[in-house]
Amino acid sequence: MSKVINEQVKKAEALISGLRKHPEMMKKAGLNEALINTLETESKLLNSQNQELEDLELKRREASRKANKKYNEIRVHFQDMKKKIKLSFDPSEWAQAGISDKK
User: Fold this and answer.
1) pTM of the predicted model, to two decimals?
2) Which pLDDT does position 103 carry in this prediction?
């Protein structure tokens, strides 16, 4: 989504620049400096919000990577412990250790 936002901000900046260079076009179209200033302000705000979203997305990816790493660590420990229980005890006793497997 940020690519779409970046493109829209660039288009707005180009329009603002063009209208400021050619004020006669702005007047003929019924536009005024206040409208141009509003567009400029809103465009800068959108760009700032888009950057904030990109920063949050990077943080989310990092948190997700860490969570996946931790999940894999826990899964390995779980499988190792489960294997040791299954090798050390009769299947009828596995349930006592929280293992619901039948074989």
Assistant:
1) 0.70
2) 78
